[in-house]
Amino acid sequence: MTAPGHDDDATAGAGPHRASSGRRLRLVIAGVLTVAIVLLVGVALGRLSSPTPVTPGTDSVEAGFSRDMQVHHEQAVQMAMMVRDRTDDPAVRSLAYDMALTQSQQAGQMYAWLELWRLPQAPSEPTMTWMTRPTLDGDYGSHHMTDDGGAGGSATPVATHEPGGRMPGLATDEQLAALASANGVEAERIFLTLMIAHHEGGIEMADAVLARSEVPQVRAFASGMLQTQQSEVDAMQAMLVERG
Amino acid sequence: MASSDKPTDKPTVKQQRDARRHEKVAELKRQQARAKRNRTIGIVTASVAGAAAIALVVTFVVTSGQPRQDPQAIEIDGVKTYSDLTANHVGGSVDYAMTPPAGGDHNQIWLNCGVYTEPVPNENAVHDLEHGAVWFTYDPEQVSEAEIEALRDFAPDTYAVVSPYEGLDSPMYVSAWGAQLPFANVTDDEATVSDFVTKYWKSTNAPEPGAPCSGGVDGTGKIA
Fold first, then answer.
1. According to the model, what pLDDT value does residue A24 have?
2. ipTM of this complex
3. pLDDT > 70? residue A18
4. CA B44 to chain CA mean position, Å
């Protein structure tokens, strides 16, 4: 390619030389563009045909779950620590010990997901908004627009979830105050009653995220939560019966 | 062309010159036509390639999920930051480098997060900042009852303290560990204060984010 160019340079003056180097420039540009496009297409094909690592965004179901469930777990830890100060009963104290440490560790897992996804810990939208999003099968589940009586007319009791609503099972300040001022069996009863409702709410939220997320870590976490909290609900109901 | 029509006639000099000129013109036209065709091919190719590149980039953006909102990348006008804060547990009162405090040594017992109607002890509240809480303070002399109410509504339900603080140089402040922002009220400054919460609430800027904000000590006048 270069040899004719040099010949032109030597013999034929400016005109042909310009034409030749112009063509060479065009060829170089075309070559670079071709390489770039081939690379881009290759990367695109590779990326679109392989399973993409999922990184949820700030308004995603996964981020919403991770934020709300941290708050939910933090209250469980708080109640478990409270009852340990209110009773000497070994069964309740060890149950509470288990719950406090488990849920504290789980809250840390959800905290770390948000950090790894490079998302703020602070919610980007009102609490529970993620639970009003469509499910994977395109349904809205039982959590959509229930204040007008529930559109589907379903027979199952419909939870009143709406953006900004209270998380299911969360104890009120008054209930926490009642636990804080009780002692012995009375404190145990209040704790068990509040924690059964708390776990049932947690199970509802875990169910809701399983219906809406395909992120493996989130699904594994929620499945584990479902299983263990359901078994703890059964155990707590038995303990509540024992305490009259 | 003209010469080949009548091969037997000997062309005149003028005719020969005309013929050569015609040939040159024809050759020039062919060159121009070729150049034009090449340019058209070039433009079409470049356009197609450009469109393909744009389409691929769009595909990437669309398939790479929802947009990131990296909290560390948020820039907030008017925020003051403090580095190299110490975090020792100390008894008694601490002389803080800034008012209200935004980190430093503190009491070993943390303040229970929530809404207070009375000033809270600095030394307990700073322990909350270490645990990732944000602390909203307002100067009762400089704000209206409605502004206080709006602030209480605005504050996150967990990992937040709202309390009066006398003698501030701004009607309100929001503080986190190592950062604070003066502001007038949450109505006029909602965007900025929201950015502050997004960036600093339970953030890794604090030494122990997610450590407890309950089970410590209540201040006086806790209403939520």
1. 87
2. 0.73
3. no
4. 39
Q: From the CA of A142, how many Å to the nearest CA of chain B?
A: 26
The closest alpha carbon to B141, from B123, B173, B164, belongs to B164
Selected residue of B40, B45, B63, B69 to mutate for chain A interface (largest A Cβ count, 10 A)? B69
Half-sphere exposure of residue B59, counting CA atoms within 13 Å on the CB side? 15
The residues on A that touch B, with CB distances below 8 Å, are 26, 30, 33, 36-37, 40-41, 44, 47-48, 52, 54-60, 70-71, 74, 77-78, 81-82, 107-108, 111, 115, 118-122, 124, 127, 173
Name the residue type at position A138: G
Mark yes or no for CB contact B65/A57 under 8 Å.
Answer: yes
Q: Which residues pair with B183 in a beta bridge?
A: B172
3-state secondary structure A96-125: HHHHHHHHHHHHHHHHHHHHHCCCCCCCCC
- Cα→Cα distances B98→A87, B46, B122, B168, Å: 43, 60, 11, 11
pLDDT at B61: 65
Task: Please report how the helices A90-116 and A184-210 are oriented relative to each other, as an axis angle in degrees rounded to 10.
Answer: 30
For residue B71, give the chain A residue with the closest CA: A120
* Span of A64-68, A124-128, B13-17, B213-217 with lowest mean pLDDT: B13-17
Domains of chain B, residue spans = 2-63, 73-200
